[in-house]
Recover the amino acids of this structure.
């Protein structure tokens, strides 16, 4: 917990020091569609469910170096394997990023997610820290993204904390004036400690498509 | 001992001055005798002045003066022999200084006739060094005195070491001529600051002789201090107007890096006990990455121009050109106020 606080404080300091005093502010709103595949192995074989989430995302750009992003999505996952149950998923994420150099952003964020069946609701919270390489193509009209995150603090209702959790992904964003379109593949992996002779594993894979509009239209230099 | 040496040195220094002074006194005495019509006595003194045995220093001007008055004294006397001798002395005077002349109000027709005959018998062209002057082109002129001893074709030309030239006179001449120069050279432009040689070339109409004389003058420009124009834009002052060829390759590699990131996440980071990641999801991004890389590579290969940099460079060039235009206009205004300072330079000949 102490380590988490130190990392959080350092990130907050990085964000506040990077924000220009008279920052040029811009916002981007985006609709998102996420194809999800959720796999769980609690010792009884792999249970798999998949489905589609719909949501929205808002990003506040403070100058050219700081971004604050809020995102929410919800939908239904359908069981794809024996033993799995259909469930509703809702999640929300808040994330702050700082571009240390134009091609590298460091970020910190918090995600809350819930899986609901008619009988039970499981709540997850994940604190995440990571970095994102942004690779500009064709004069920055296209950006390639490769990201990696550690999730140092994950809480799951009814379960022990996972002893290892991380996420990674890659994607592309195309921009045409104020309009942007992106596609992103992400994978979250959670390895839980051995309990009653079984090691629980969970994996949350997503393919997210964003369609966004940025105001004002021009990008911050 | 030291005092003695100093006195001896001063005496040595003073000796030529005293000698010149004696020659001047002799010439003055001779002129006075001549004016009092005591010609024989004047001739004796003048002969002493020009004699190689004269104990006194005789300057070139004093020698010319002596020859002139010898000629005048002999021409004053009757007889052909005297007249011939007079002409000989006048020639000697003219050979040493072609500008020497007899003032008509001070000499009688016989003397003037003998002098005119002497001028016919020798031929010389001469020019006097220009006096230091300041010339405002277009509104004032500098006067140059050139001469041929008798009827001749005379060509007066000014030419600078840098190549600029101007013919000031080309035509017939007899005697002294004042040639005027307005400070312009042959193409009508202001004479550049330079050292100029003024040549006078005379071709005698009476004798088959040609003579030349030259003098030098320095021309400098007087005007307010001019501004420097901005230097030419160096490579470092301009933005690159084209992407290097490596950018296209870089775009392809970036696309492949995105694809590799997606596939690596799906294969290496996913849990093997859960059957790995979903290849369909990662494959979609990997495919998009590869496709974007290839398209970007192709587009960048065919379109390497950077329009924003081209426009910015054009703006910088135009800005510099505008600034230089202003400088040139202001300098032109200052140059229109230019005056020429003309000074005589050493090296003049006759």
């Amino acid at each position: 917990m102490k380590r988490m606080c130190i990392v959080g404080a350092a990130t907050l300091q990085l964000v506040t020091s990077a924000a220009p005093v008279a920052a040029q502010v811009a916002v981007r709103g985006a609709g998102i569609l996420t194809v999800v595949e959720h796999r769980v192995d609690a010792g009884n074989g792999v249970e798999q469910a998949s489905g589609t989430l719909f949501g929205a995302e808002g990003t506040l750009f403070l100058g050219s170096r700081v971004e604050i992003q809020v995102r929410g999505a919800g939908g239904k996952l359908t069981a794809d394997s024996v033993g799995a149950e259909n469930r509703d998923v809702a999640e929300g994420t808040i994330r702050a990023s700082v571009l240390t150099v134009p091609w590298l952003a460091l970020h910190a964020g918090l995600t809350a997610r819930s899986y609901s069946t008619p009988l039970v609701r499981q709540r997850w919270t994940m604190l995440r820290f990571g970095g994102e390489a942004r690779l500009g193509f064709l004069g920055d009209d296209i950006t390639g993204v490769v990201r990696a995150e550690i999730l140092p603090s994950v809480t799951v209702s009814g379960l022990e904390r996972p002893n290892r959790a991380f996420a990674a992904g890659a994607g592309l964003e195309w921009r045409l004036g104020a309009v942007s379109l992106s596609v992103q593949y992400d994978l979250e992996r959670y390895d839980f400690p051995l309990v009653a002779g079984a090691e629980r594993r969970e994996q949350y894979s997503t393919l997210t498509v964003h369609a966004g509009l940025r105001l004002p239209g021009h990008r911050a230099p | 001992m030291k005092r003695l040496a100093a006195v001896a040195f001063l005496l040595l220094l003073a000796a030529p001055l005293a000698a010149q002074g004696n020659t001047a006194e002799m010439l003055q005495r001779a002129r006075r005798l001549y004016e009092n019509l005591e010609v024989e006595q004047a001739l004796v003194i003048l002969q002493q002045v020009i004699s190689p045995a004269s104990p006194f220093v005789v300057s070139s001007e004093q020698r010319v003066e002596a020859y002139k008055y010898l000629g005048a004294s002999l021409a004053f006397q009757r007889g052909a022999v005297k007249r011939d001798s007079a002409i000989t002395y006048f020639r000697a005077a003219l050979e040493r200084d072609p500008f020497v002349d007899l003032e008509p109000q001070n000499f009688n027709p016989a003397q003037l006739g003998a002098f005119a005959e002497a001028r016919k018998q020798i031929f010389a062209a001469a020019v006097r060094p220009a006096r230091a002057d300041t010339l405002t082109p277009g509104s004032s002129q500098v006067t140059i005195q050139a001469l041929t001893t008798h009827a001749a074709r005379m060509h007066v030309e000014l030419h600078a070491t840098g190549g600029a030239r101007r013919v000031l006179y080309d035509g017939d001449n007899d005697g002294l001529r004042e040639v005027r120069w307005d400070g312009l050279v042959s193409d009508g432009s202001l004479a550049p600051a330079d050292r100029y040689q003024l040549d006078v070339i005379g071709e005698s109409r009476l004798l088959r002789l040609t003579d030349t004389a030259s003098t030098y003058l320095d021309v400098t420009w007087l005007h307010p201090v001019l501004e420097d124009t901005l230097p030419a834009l160096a490579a470092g002052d301009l933005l690159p107007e084209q992407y290097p060829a490596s950018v296209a390759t870089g775009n392809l590699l970036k696309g492949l890096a995105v694809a590799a990131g997606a596939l690596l996440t799906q294969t290496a980071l996913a849990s093997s006990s859960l059957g790995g990641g979903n290849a369909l999801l990662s494959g979609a991004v990997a495919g998009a990455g590869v496709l974007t890389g290839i398209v970007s590579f192709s587009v960048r290969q065919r379109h390497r121009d950077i329009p924003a940099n081209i426009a910015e460079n054009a703006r910088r060039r135009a800005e510099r050109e505008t600034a230089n235009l202003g400088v040139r206009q202001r300098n032109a205004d200052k140059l229109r106020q230019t005056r020429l300072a003309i000074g005589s330079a050493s090296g003049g000949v006759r």
